[in-house]
Every structure is written in structure tokens, then in C-alpha cells.
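Record type: ASSEMBLY
Status: queued
Input:
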Amino acid sequence: MTKKLLTRYNNTPGSHTLAFYQSVNGYQALEKALAMTPDAVIDEVKKSNLRGRGGAGFPTGMKWSFMPKAPVDAEGKPKPKFLVCNADEGEPGTFKDRLLMTQHPHQLVEGMIIAGHAIGATRGYIYIRGEFVHETRRVEAAIEEARAAGFLGAKVMGKEWSFDLCVYRGAGAYICGEETALLNSLEGKRGEPRLKPPFPAQVGAFGMPTCVNNVETFCSVPTIIAGGAEAFASLGTERSGGTRLFCVSGHIEKPGVYELPINITLPELIAHCGGVLGGRKLKAVIPGGASAPMLRADEIEVAMDFDSLAKAGTMAGSGGVIIIDETACIVEVAARLLKFYEHESCGQCSQCREGSHWLARMFDRIERGGGTEDDLNMIAEICSNMAGQTICAFADAVTGPALSTIRKFRSEFEEHVRLGRCPCKHEGHAYPHSQIHHASARL
Amino acid sequence: MTVLDSTITQRIDAMRPHFPTEQALLIPLLHEIQGKAGWISRDAMQEAASYLHLPLSKVLEVVTFYTMFNTKPVGKKHIQVCTNVACFLRGADQLVASLEKRLGVHAGETTADQRYTLSEVECLAACGTAPCMQVNDDYHENLTEESLKTLMDKFDQEFQ
Ligand SMILES: Cc1cc2nc3c(=O)[nH]c(=O)nc-3n(C[C@H](O)[C@H](O)[C@H](O)COP(=O)(O)O)c2cc1C
Ligand code: FES
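Status: finished
Output:
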């Protein structure tokens, strides 16, 4: 039985209330952390080997230590520091932050207050994707309860430190999950990523030093402080502590969010979720959200931690694992993903704006039977003009599905070109009606 | 007719102490406007601009960037079906097709009686309960042809 740190009380009635949370030792970690110096808290998080769950897997304690201790403005006046929670959860295939906010919002609030103490922030913002109306209400209710109980506001738990939280709703833009785009959005602007440096730790929200972490990252903090860094670290690998929430979807018998050892292998994970849907044959897996390069069925003998997946040429990303079985057409799946990127490119950098558009058109053309051999060869060329050439990592993300599918499933692409149609579109195919919609399908 | 009423301005004013700039209140204000009116008209943008002392161009820039902000009227029920990859693998396209048939509109259109707008949207972060859709504020998950029909019949009845 795996040790569960974040989802132990899943589906327990009332788990979102302060009364419940305190009945299971909630906010005791905060009390312990407030008795420690900020540096001691950061050290503890460093020792826990917690790595960010938002996608990049950056060591959390190190990120916190980058925050300036006593920043001042040009006139020598102290600058406020901000803490931001990334609850944009936009990476296709990812749906864990939604569960954490719905069922365990106090875990997030407590984690953020501890983080605020560690970096010396005065205020925290929780940026929640706009579609999450009910999740937003849950988090707001938790903030109110925490404030009424003296965990937030002036003099947190009677100490000489004030800290408050405020929820901010996004409005439907995948790019706002990128942390600097998020900061622009939080300032009421278009969600366009910023050039780095300066990094948010120097110039973040409203020009002030800011630390951005994912929901799951913050939710891991109370358990680190309460149970100790060693206990947390020992659950993971040498370089990555704790458990991880895997979001398993697609052609799988029991889709859902599973908290499991961070280094579980992919075949173990699939088996844990009841196996491939209908007992069918596996074709491919997207192991870490839509941007992660696909693994072919013969490449799945790999552990799911950040380092092992990177070594396998893909990434652990956001923990979104999408299972694709033999009935799916890889070209059609790829075309669907590229249509997403085309729609979501913020348009700031021409390589990304044009490249995403070209790729989406090409994959769609190939899927519908109008592609040529030249198209197949041009995909890699377009990708090489995108990856690493832009302000943010979105363009790199686009090349994940584009390159991995054309490289690993080239024969399927070639067959589309040769036949002048999708070979999967015949009677008896699992989803014979599926077709790409073109007309401007959204408002 | 103005769209900003005291309920809206009170909510925005309550948020003000949390933010160092007026512009930060723009997206919350636009959400409030859309929550009341269903969409954001040019007049409403002008009102938002005046209220926050911003030029209209700043408001336009923001409204047009975010997919959730409707710049034309939508039906009373805005049906947004996720057609991203996990939902697609679990049959989202058939749901869109049957909704198009039932409502007599294509995705992206509103029914003549202004009751329904049908849209395709990107991942709603409910992939584990695919296929799914959002109707106004609510998610509907693990959809099947049958559960979709039951739900739509219920919506139709609400209009009776
Ligand atoms: C295109 C793009 C989209 C992203 N979307 C998200 C997201 O939805 N949620 C998230 O937490 N991080 C997302 N990230 C990662 C953030 O930029 C950032 O690394 C993360 O929030 C840091 O938190 P962590 O250190 O706790 O992982 C995205 C990055 C990129 C480039
Ligand atoms: S793909 Fe439909 S909710 Fe994620």
C-alpha cells in the first residue's frame, strides 16, 4: 500500500472544511514552521528534495532561496514580496489541482502560508483558471475560514507577521500557466510571457520579487514540515522526494488521479489503473501532459520520475498520463494536439505564431489525406525553427507532440499520404465519425 | 442602460485593497460584467474603462486575448464541449455531432431562439472523467449519448 500524503482524505465528507482539516492535525505544520526561522524552513524544503509539480520539476527549496532577503526600491524603501500559486491547470491531460482545490483547499492555504513565512512575503495570490468556478468558491471559502481562525491577516497566529491571500480568476488562456504570462494576467494585462531575465524572484508581480509555485507543490509543504524532510525525501528517488499525483486518462480502464511513488514505472501505473481500456493493445503513451513527447508501446519500460523520463527523451511534466490504444490514429491524435497549440499560441513571437499555425495545417492536411512526402519532411524543419527560439517554452512544447509522432510513427503518416485518406476511417473503427472541425468552432 | 451596478462595484471595491494597481481589477470586473450580461459589449467595455480610469484600448486588448470573454451575445445556456485529446479519445466528437443535430446549429453558433450556444473548447482539466463539457458555470462529466440526452431534455424543460 502506497503512503498517501496529499490525498489521504479523498472522498471524505467535509474534507474541505477547516473543522475537518484541523481534526486531522491541519495547521499544526504552520505552527511548527512559524517557530522556525525562515531559513530553517527553506533548508527543510531543500532537504526534502521537493521538486515543482507544475511541469519543469525545479527544486522548490532552491527557488525559495533565490528570493531576495530585504529588497529595497531606488529610494531605499523596502519592497513587498509576493507569493503566487499557479492554479491555471491548462496542460491537456492534467486534472490534479482541481481535485486538490475541491477536496483539500486548506492544505493549499496552509502550504502557502508556510511558504510566505519562508520567503518573507506579505501577500499571496492564487491564480485559478476561469473555468473553475466551483473550485474557486471552495478556495475562497477556505481562505475566509483561515482568516477567521487567525491563520491569515494581520499577525498570523499572533506573530509579528501579516500575510493574506486573494484569489484571482483567469479567463481562458493556456499560456497563462506559463509563470510570467500568469504575472501579466494577474496585473490585468494580456497574458503574454515576459523575457527572462529578470526572473520573477527579482521582478515579478507588479514589479516586486515574486515566487510562483504550483498547487500540488504548495500542498506538499505542510507534510514536509510536519513529518520531516527525511521522511518525505525517502519516499522518492535520490533527486526527487515524495509522492506524485498522476492524472491518468484516455484509453484506460480506471481513469483518475492516483497518488503513487514518484518512480513507479509506466507499466505498473497502467496496471494500477486497471489496464488498457477493454483489454485492447497499447499503442502509445503521453507521459507528462500534452507537451511531453509520446512514448511508443515498446518504450514504456521506464520510471515516471523527472530524471528517468528525461533520459527516455520525454518528460514527467505536469503528471498528465494519456493512454492511447491501438484503435486510435496517431496522425489524428497529433492533429488534435497541434490544433490546440495553434489556438493557444499567444502570438508574440513570430516563430511560434507562424510555426504552430503551419504545423496545425500540415497535420490536419495529412490526416485528411491531402498531405505529401514533402510535408512529412518539413515537419522537423519547422520544429527546428521553433524550439529554443522564442520568449517562452511554449514553442518547445509544440515540438513535443509534432516531432515525436512523425519520428516514432512515420509509417502511419506515410500511409495517409500513400492512400490519400486516413487508413483508420473504415467501418469497424472504434470512432468512425471523428473528424476535425474547421469552421471557427469557438467564439 | 448601464451594466455596472452597485453589486458589481461593491465586489470590485472589496478586491481593491489586495492589488497595487487599478488595472489588476480589470479581469475581475470583466468577469462580473459577463456574469451579469452574458457577454461584453463595446458599451460595457467603455464603462469598465471609465470605472478603472483606463483607456478603452487597454480594455479591448484584454477582452480579445481571453477565450472566455464573449464579444458577441451567447445563448442562455452556453454549451462548451471539450474536444481536446483525452475527451476526443473517449468520444467527444460524437457528442458534438449529436448536439449539432439536436440543436440544428454548428459548433460556434447560437440557436435562433437564443437558448443555446454550442462551442468546442480546449481541455477543461477534467480528462479523467472524459468526455466532458461545461454549461455556464457547471461541468458535466463522464458523458454518454444517453446522459447527454437526459441533460438536454432537462435544459429544454427549464425553458418551458
Ligand atoms: C506553456 C506553459 C504552460 C504552463 N502551464 C502551467 C500550468 O497550467 N500550471 C502550472 O503549475 N505550471 C505551468 N507551467 C509551468 C510554470 O511556468 C512554472 O514553471 C510553474 O508554475 C512553477 O511551479 P513549480 O516550481 O511548483 O512547478 C507552464 C509552463 C509553460 C511553458
Ligand atoms: S481533454 Fe477534455 S478535459 Fe482534458
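Annotation: Residues A 92; B 82, 84-87, 123-127, 130, 132 surround FE2/S2 (inorganic) cluster (ligand 2) (CB under 6 Å).
Annotation: The longest helix of chain A spans residues 350-367.
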